[in-house]
Amino acid sequence: MFETRLREAARAVQASFDGVLSTFQPLPVVAAMAHATHGGKRLRGFLVMESARLHDIPTKQAIWPATAIEALHAYSLVHDDLPCMDDDDLRRGQPTIHKKWDEATAVLAGDALQTLAFELVSRPDCSPDAAVRAELALTLARASGAQGMVLGQALDIAAETRETSLDLDEITALQQGKTGALIEWSAMAGARMAQADTGPLSRYARALGLAFQIADDLLDITGDTATVGKAVGKDADAGKATFVSLLGIDGARARADALVEEACDSLAAYAGGAEALREAARFVVTRTH
Prior knowledge:
The protein has 14 helices and 2 strands. It has 289 residues and is mostly helical.
């Protein structure tokens, strides 16, 4: 079920991007935006679509926040890959934007993708209720900015020059922003669109986001560039504290497995309707890229 719905969500999001970007002028920055939004697992978009399904939100509405979160995520990757940040040459097995074009185009493409995300959740197609659209935009701003993802990125940069390594609580807080904030927004989107209780999906997503990051840390140690689609071993080479460096490979895997169980238990209120979300939690700790 999960793999089928993940593929369906990926196709729907790609079609949405193709439609939106086809209305833009044929400029290098737009080509770079298309490059940045092509491929990937689309896990965040899937979480939006699946949480919307749980709350009987039509797909024709859910596709807009699903595309929005993938645009926001793509922007973060474009900027993260820049020489002033992680300085990566590969993303999803393809040249990064600043390598395929140049740094200025990468900065502008990232800027445009970020603002596109807020445009998409503000469209009347997303919800007939202006209050719902405003809530989606407000919470997306919080999740992506200096209270969420950007905060996590800033803490990550600061840790590089810190005299002492981060401890487990500090890494957890960092990753809840850097990786977890957008995952949490995605999983809660359907409940927000239905103006329903977001608590169960928030608890699910918080555990899922940490499990996802631990899996990333493990891939950085155990994966290879061809399979993962980006450089590996960079955290270890830089001497960065990660879940793996603190817990060891076996300890990190055990922690990820415990988080998956926590995520699945959080969905009890949805019974069998949330099985695809449970499968998604199990997927994040077994993925190879």
